[in-house]
Amino acid sequence: MRVLINFDDINGAHKVFDQMPERDVVSWNSIISGHSSFGFHDSALRLFSQMQTFGVIPSEYTYSIVLSFIQSVHHGMEIHCNMIRSGVNFSSIIIGNSLIDMYCNHGLMDYAFVVFLNMKQRDIISWNTMIAGFSKSDYQKMAYKQFNTMRTTTNLLPDEYTISSMLTACSSLQDLSTGKQIFSLSIKLGFLSNTILSSAAIDMFSKCKHINDSIRVFEEINTWDSSVCNSMISSLVDHRLEENAIDLFALSMTKNIRPTEFTLSCLVSCASLFLPPVQGTQFHCLVVKLGFEQDSVVSSSLVEMYSKCGSIDHAKTIFDQMSVKDLISWNTMILGLTHNGKTIESIQLFDELLKSGPPPDEVTLYGTLLACNHGSFINKGLLIFNSMEEKYGVRPTETHLTTIVDLMIQTGRLYEALEMVKKTGSGLNGYMCESILDVYGIEGELGFIEKIAERLVKLEPMGVLPYIVLGKAYEMRGKWESVARVKKEMKDRNVRKVGGCSWIGVKKRGLFVFNENEVVHHGGEDVYEMLRLVVRDIEDECHIV
User: Is the sign of the CA dihedral 371, 377, 383, 385 positive or negative?
Assistant: First the structure.
C-alpha cells in the first residue's frame, strides 16, 4: 500500500487497504498520511475517527500526522483533549512538537508555550518551532528570550532553522545590531552557504535599510536557488531598484531557476513603472505559460499592474476570470477602477463584494470612499463613513476621515466638514488644508484663509501652495504690501515651485523626460524638428480647408 501511495495511486492504495483482513496502526497511519498528502484532509479525519471505532489505538505518529494538517484550531483542541482522555504519554517529543507546531500555526502562542514548558524533554525541533512561532506572531522579543535560554541552559547548538527564525525576528523589529550578531554567529557555525539562512539574511538587511549588505550576502554565496533569488528580487523592488530586479530575474532564468508565484508577483508589481507596459505584458505571458494565472497573489499583481498602466479593461477581465478572489483581489480591483475614473463601477463592485465576497476591511472602505470622492457621491460617501464601525466593524482612520472631509469640502459643505473634524479631536491635517485652499483659497473669507494657510505652513514648511494662494488672495484685494511680504517669506525659506514634467517611452530606447520650461534637452533638436514638421502639416491642412 505504501508503494502505491508513493506512486500517486491513492485509489489503488485505498482498495488494498479495504481488502486487508487485519489492519494495524501502521496501516492506518499510512492511509491517513496518504489522504493528507493529496490534500484530502476531510477524508483523512474521517479515517482517523474510523480507526478508533475499529478499536485501533492511535500512536504518537498518528497524532503527529493528524495535527499536521488540521485546518481548524478547534479540531486541534478536540484532538488534544482526546489525547488527554486516552492517556497519551505527553513526555513524547514527537507529540509535544506536533502540538506546539499546530498551536503556533494558528497563532495561539500561549497554548503552544504551555505545551513547551510541560515537555520533560526538548530537542532542537522543539526550540526551533517555539522560536519560529514567536518570531512570526509579533512576539519577537520572546523569540530572543527563548533563543538565549536555549543557548545558556542546554547543550543544543542552533541550526540553520534557528538562525533563520532569529533573522526573521530581527527583520520584523528592524533590529540591525542584533541581526548582525546573529548573522555573524551563522558564519561562525558555517551556515552561510545554506540558502534558507542566506534568504533570511538578505531580507533582514533589506528591511533594516541596508540594501548594500543584502547585495553583498547575495554575491558571496555560491549556490543560487529560487528562495535566494526571490529574496534578492523582492529586496531590490522594495528599494525602488526595479531595473536591477528585472536584470537579476533575467540572469536567474539563464541559470535555469524556475520562477515561483512570489517571483512573478514582485516583478509584475514593479512592471507598471515602465512605460510603455511591454515588460508587464511579457511577464503576463510568462505567468500564463507557467500556469500561475489562477494564483490569487499573482492575479492581484496583474490587476494592479494593468490598472496602473491605464488598461483597466484588461485588469477587469483578469479579475472576472479569477476562480478564487480573496480580499486583496477585491481591494486591488476597487482601487484600480477608482484611480482610472470608473467611480460608478467601483461602487458597484463594492456592493457586489458585500453580497458575495469576504467582509470588507479598512482598505476596501478607503477605496470605496475614494470612489465617492472622485465621483462627488456625497450621500453614498457619508452613508458608508457613518456606518463603518457599526456595520462593517472597521474603525475609521485618519485616511478615511481625510477622504470624506475632502469630499464634503469639494461639494460645498465646508462647515459640516469642520464640525466633523472637530468631533474627532484630530485637527486639520495637511491634505485637508490643501483641499480648503484649493476650493476657497482666493475668494474665501481672508481671515479664515490666513489661518488655514498658516496651519499648512506649520504642517508642510516647504509646501508652495499656501504662499501661492495667499499671494493671489492679497493681489485680488489690492494688498500689495502683503503680496511682497509673502514673496519675501518664500525667498527667505527657500520655498520654490516644483516644476512639472512629462515623459514618453520609446520601445527599447527607454524613457524620455521633458521638464517644464526646459530649453535644452538630450535629443532636443530632433524633438523640435519633429514639432516643426507637425506644425507645418497642421498649417497646410488649415490652408487647404
Answer: positive
